[in-house]
Amino acid sequence: MPSNIPPAPADAASRRAAKPAIVYPAGTMPEPDMATLEAARRALVKTHELIVPPRDARAFRVARGQFFRIVSVEGPQVGDLNLWNADDLSERFFSGKTRALHGTHVGIGDRLWSNMPYLRPMATISHDTLGWYGFDADGAGIHDVIGTRCDPYTNLLLNGTTYDFCCHSNLSRALATEVKADPAAVEHHVHDVLNVFMCTGFTKDTHQYFMKASPVRPGDFIEFFAEIDLLGALSACPGGDCSATHSSDAAACHPLKIEIFEPDRTALKGWTWPSPSAYHRRHGAHAGS
Questions:
Q1: Cα separation of 145 and 271, whole Å?
Q2: How many alpha carbons lie under 13 Å from residue 264 in its C-beta half-sphere?
Q3: CB of 254 within 8 A of CB of 236?
Q4: DSSP strands (E only) in 119-184
Q5: Which residue pairs, CB below 8 angstroms and at least 24 apart, start in 151-157?
Q6: Of 63, 65, 147, nearest in space to 98 by CA
């Protein structure tokens, strides 16, 4: 602990005793119609699948109204997911707002929200075979929107070494391949991720971000419903199950599979498709004029 921390004031106890208030109460925003999604997914037809190799990433496209799954196929493996509007890379997954709206870890019925000024649901989690996990004795949960993604810049800062297969680099290569550009030209589009299958939390004493062995096993999957046309990219993290390390070749790594499904579209006829936020974007500049 730093030596220059000032002493606590006389009323420190009463200040700390203030009651918490949820910043964004869940009941104040529209809930997805999960019954409709359940009906639509009863007759899913697989239209495409691809394998993401260990320590690499692949891009994929999902049409509005389709479902996609990220599947464990050979062994415990964490994946880092990015999502963009397929027609406009400036609209992308906003992990920070998703965290504020739903919590540190997401599951069935939660939505992945896009950045401002769009701020709309990009995808809804429709199924999760790890939904049973909840939060364990260490306070850890699955599928976090806390971590940003492992990256070569932080690795160089902390370890003094260069490593080119961190998730940031993997996602940059995958996006570059998809849009036919150089990775350095598109890496600014790579953003904070959904850490799929990753088991994480904060330590109780120092409140530091921690990871532990993922409980995912072959056959487990998380499934999403695409609410807009999506371009996605998934990295099979070099940390493997993230039980001990990342940003190196030390961990045992496994591939991940992406599956895309066409649903019974008649079951979705009453679905309300999200539009970008209706906020006028004047930001008070013309108030009173």
A1: 26
A2: 10
A3: yes
A4: 121-128, 141-144
A5: 151/247, 152/247, 154/247, 155/247
A6: 147
Tell me the H-state helices in 4-131.
12-16, 34-40, 95-102
Tokens representing residue 72 in the block = 């464990």
Q: Which amino acid is at 70?
A: I
Residue 211: how many other CB atoms lie within 10 Å: 22
Interacting residues of 193 by C-beta distance below 8 A, sequence separation 6+ = 80, 81, 82, 93, 95, 147, 148, 149, 167, 171, 235
DSSP assignment, residue 250? -
Residues 6, 106: Cα–Cα separation, whole Å: 38
**DSSP label at 154?**
H
The residues pairing with 211 across neighbouring beta strands, listed in sequence order, are 200
For residue 139, is it left (φ>0), alpha (ψ between -120 and 50) or beta?
left
What residues pair up with 120 in beta bridges, in sequence order?
none
- Tens-digit pLDDT string for the chain (289 aa): 677 899 999 999 999 999 999 998 877 888 999 999 999 999 999 999 999 999 999 999 999 999 999 999 999 999 999 999 999 999 999 999 999 999 999 999 999 999 999 999 999 999 999 999 999 999 999 999 999 999 999 999 999 999 999 999 999 999 999 999 999 999 999 999 999 999 999 999 999 999 999 999 999 999 999 999 999 999 999 999 999 988 889 899 999 999 999 999 999 999 999 999 999 999 999 766 5
Supply angle C-alpha 139, 167, 122, rounded to 5: 75
| Nearest 10 degrees: Cα torsion 90, 95, 131, 20 | -150
Distance CA 48, CA 261 (A): 7
